[in-house]
């Protein structure tokens, strides 16, 4: 929970600076690129194993239908290549005895896992690169004089370059103050008299329980932020 108390205001403040976001995106791009290359290499190794099994199991073998199911789970680019194998040369299939149903189940799971992981890395790569290029454009537009061709373009430019960053910084300061209030309240929670909890003092003064609702809502927000950032 302490992580969320610190990171929620920090995340809002960092998002207000396009240059910092761009630096972070460049780091993310390099990291995701490595993950994508590793996922592609892993998938290629598993597909090579599938090709080997595809050549070993002849059409007459009872395990042939399971091999065909595995081939269907392979990416579409490799599916046709795996399916178009001349089985006539392997009709007698002496190596069929080395293939078992349990090994095919294991290969089937590896194919699904590797394909899913590569697809995930590819989607992350596309999204991160797209966001990075968009941020790069806004950083360049902010650093030089920009003339919008229309009123709508001018409104979009000023809101994106000036209004939104200022709003995010204001929200970050507000969240930082709320985090300090919660930390202070936790420190003096056991003190019954005098009342030192800021939320309790505000409720007594303002006479509106909405302050407690806002405080609890913020605590839920940073708790959810913490849960979504933790890798289980």
Distance between the termini: 16 Å
Along the chain, the helix and strand elements come as HHHHHHHH
Number of strands: 0
Mean pLDDT: 79
Q: How much β-strand is present in the residues?
A: under 5%
Helical region count? Answer: 8
Radius of gyration: 29 Å
Break the fold down into its secondary structure elements and pairings.
Layout (H helix, E strand, L loop, with lengths): L1 H14 L2 H39 L7 H10 L2 H8 L17 H43 L7 H37 L10 H9 L3 H20 L3
Helix pairs in contact: 1-6, 1-8, 2-5, 3-4, 3-5, 7-8
What does this structure look like?
There is one protein chain. The protein is built from eight helices and no strands. The chain has 232 residues and is an all-alpha fold. The chain starts with a helix and ends with a helix. About 5% of the residues have low confidence.
Question: Briefly, what is this?
Answer:
The chain is mainly alpha-helical. Helices cover about 80% and strands about 0% of the residues. The chain is flat, with a radius of gyration of 29 Å.
Index terms:
232 residues, mainly alpha
């Amino acid at each position: 929970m302490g992580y969320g108390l610190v990171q929620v205001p920090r995340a809002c403040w960092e998002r207000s600076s396009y240059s910092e976001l761009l630096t972070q995106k460049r780091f993310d791009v390099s990291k995701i690129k490595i993950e994508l290359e590793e996922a592609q290499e892993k998938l290629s190794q598993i597909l090579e194993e599938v090709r080997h099994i595809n050549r070993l199991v002849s059409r007459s073998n009872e395990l042939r239908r399971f091999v065909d199911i595995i081939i269907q789970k392979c990416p579409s680019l490799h599916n046709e290549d795996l399916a178009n194998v001349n089985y006539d040369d392997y009709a007698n299939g002496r190596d069929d005895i080395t293939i078992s149903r349990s090994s095919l189940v294991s290969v089937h799971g590896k194919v699904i896992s590797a394909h899913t992981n590569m697809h995930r890395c590819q989607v992350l790569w596309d999204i991160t690169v797209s966001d990075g290029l968009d941020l790069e454009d806004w950083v360049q537009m902010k650093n030089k004089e920009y003339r919008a061709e229309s009123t709508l373009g001018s409104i979009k430019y000023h809101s994106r370059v000036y209004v939104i960053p200022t709003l995010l910084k204001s929200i970050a300061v507000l969240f930082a103050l709320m985090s300090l209030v919660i930390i202070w309240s936790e420190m003096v929670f056991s003190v019954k008299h005098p009342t030192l909890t800021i939320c309790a003092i505000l409720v007594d003064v303002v006479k509106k329980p909405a302050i407690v609702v806002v405080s609890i809502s913020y605590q839920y927000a940073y708790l959810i932020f913490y849960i979504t950032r933790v890798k289980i």
